[in-house]
Structure prediction request, 157 residues.
Amino acid sequence: MTTTQTAVTTEFRAIEGAIQIDEQNPENSSVVAAIHVLSLDTGVTDRDAHLRSDDFFNTEKYPKMTFRSTRVQRDGDNRWKVAGDLTIRDVTREVVLDTEFEGRITDPWGNDRAGFTAATTINRKDFGVRWNNVLDAGGLALGDNVRITLHLEAVRA
Prediction:
C-alpha cells in the first residue's frame, strides 16, 4: 500500500514589515515582519476556520506571527542566509531563511522595487501546534514539518 501526502498551501493576505538594506555591507541589513494570521486563506472556508482555532494558530489570542532578523550572511551570488527569531503562538525560535535576490526594477510610477524569495522548514510542534487526527485508513492527517516560502517585493521608501 502506498500513501500520498497532499500539501495544503496557505496564503496570508495581510503582511507588514520593513527591510533595511545596506548595499555597501549587506551583512548589516535587517528584516522585521508581522503576518496577520486572521488573513490566512487556503481556499476552503471550513479549513480556514479550523486553522484560526486554538488547534492551530488561535487568532483570538495570537493575532500575529512575527519575524525579526538577527544576522545576514552571504551564501553565494544573490543568495543569503537570513537568521532570525520567528514567533508563532507566543513561542519564539530561531529560523534561517534561505533567501535569494530576484532582481530590481523601476515600476511604471517611478518606484524602485526589489524582489526576494525566502524559504525555510519548521516543525509545527516546536511552536505549540500539536493538533492531529488519526485517519480511518491509518496514519495521521498532518506531518510535523511545515515548508514556509515567502515571495517578497520591497519598495524603497
Summary: The beta strands are 11-12, 15-20, 30-36, 40-41, 64-74, 79-88, 91-106, 112-123, 145-155. The first strand starts at residue 11 and ends at 12.
